[in-house]
């Protein structure tokens, strides 16, 4: 049946189903990351971004599509995480502007809105790259406009948008050589296809049986990423139903005493033990996160399918009590303390990294980075916590640039500038150019000038077989990444570290700094430094504890 009018109720259906689709497929989108590293988070970022906007739409009682779209755009902007999330927010910001003041939408209105969204998103990106989410959005909008010329059925337009998006997605490897080499389509483009498919399904009313109304609890979990962030300060610890944040990693096995792993029954059972369940698996390993009252039951269940490689339990009630005490004391201190002229916010994950940044003069450290890209709103909160009239933000990750810049534009009571540090190493080096007595523009300029003075390296483990830049990489190999390029692979982590540092050294090198992650150790770091030192006796070495996840070692050569 033709849909000649998109009402507010129908628009909410579109958003609801799209929110489910991107949530259900976030892990698949993550798997399309070009680099075979464990922090591919495009799907996570797009999912959390879209859930924030969807929550704003679904909680609204407005009867105008224009008003609902405004809520969507605002929610997406404040919840935007990573470059893919920010670009998504801009697509729907333009969409919202196009339909402002419209009570309902015609087929032409819908097509025009998608086209206006593309225009807005392209303007927001300084150097648009073909073969990305932007390409998929543009070609989808073109297909929608063409369909609207011949039909007044909004469903026909939406179907054309989806087909156009899929055609463009299939061509992304032809536009970006690295996608073709690795054998994947663009991850952001794939995420957008899932969202558009949700729109089509919600508009048609023919919703798959596996699509359900996202509950408030599920929505809040997806938005707040509770397994990464603190609970809200106003939450009473006694109100926490499931008090133990429980994580495990199971190495799947075969044998008479082990059950065969089947994803759906496995996850469904864990859902009966608590909430905030997250299950990620491949053929060899399953990773679990769940909030429960019975961690032991979770671990015993996991052992039925293989051996426990890693377990972790946090008492969230005790954590919440500490948060309330700490946040209350901080608010009181800030209220009594005059605003500083200048402050610096650095984004980093790991207690040791936080201490290192503060020792360099950083005012406030926002927990985030690899696998935990903070949202625009998170960065705004960190700027507030810096308690200064002027604030520099160090993203320390290229995927956080756009969210940081969005926060800088959204800040009202404080002037914010972003120094585009791509790595933790660059962020620390940038602090050498910082002066609390200089003005904002001078600090931004001086700190930016420091960025090229460091060569950044990191060690992490491959999560799949691939070939990139002509380098054959096997699953579980250790990789050495220098300034964003994988240059070394080895079965042995120590050997990979030594080989990577050797490639980082040049005639001007003087100091090598090794930052030890949560899954590494000082003994191995010293062995790496000693081995390189024998080859380069004039170099100085520093070893610091960073506690960062995902990357056992960060290395700076200056």
In short:
The protein is an alpha/beta fold.
Describe this structure as you would to a colleague:
The chain is of the alpha/beta class and 558 residues long. The chain is 49% helix and 18% strand. The protein is built from 21 helices and 16 strands. The strands form four sheets. A six-stranded mixed sheet has the order 13-12-9-16-14-15, with helices on both faces. It has a four-stranded antiparallel sheet with strand order 2-3-1-4. Helix 5 crosses helix 17. About 5% of the residues have low confidence.
Percentage of residues in DSSP E strands = 15-25%
Order of strands side by side in the largest beta sheet?
13-12-9-16-14-15
Total helices: the number is 21
Cα-based radius of gyration, to the nearest Å: 24 Å
Record field, number of beta strands: 16
Coarse structural class: alpha/beta
Overall pLDDT, averaged?
87
Uncertain spans: 209-235
Instruction: Report helical residue fraction.
Output: 40-55%
What characteristic shape results from the CA principal axes?
A: globular
Q: How many strands, which pairing sense, and closed or not: the largest β-sheet? A: 6 strands, mixed
Spatial separation of the terminal alpha carbons: 66 Å
